[in-house]
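QA checklist item 7 of 12: single-chain prediction sanity check.
[x] sequence parsed
[x] length recorded as 111
[x] structure emitted
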Amino acid sequence: MDWKLELDALIESTMAFANQVKRKPVPDLSIALQTAEQALAETPKPVAPRTNITPIVLPTSERDEIRQRVSTFRAHQEKMAREREHHYLQVKARMMPPPALLDDRKKNPSA
């Protein structure tokens, strides 16, 4: 039963402390209210609509979505094949001797 006495003493001391604390008035509350009213009263500037927004076109059915995805994938694969071929030709051109050197070897095989 000792804890009940301690609890009562704690409540008593807390109440005494709360009664001792003096409330302070908020200084210049009217200035804060005026500022808030001015901010709310100002009309916001209209935002210009963006003209470069493209509308989203949703497929009408699952079949159309599959066709669209397959065509996108096919286009990507063709692009990769073109880039691979282009890279191959660039590497091959660097590896091969210049055509003038080949002509000289045909004319003068001992060199």
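[x] summary fact logged: The mean pLDDT is 83.
[ ] second reviewer sign-off
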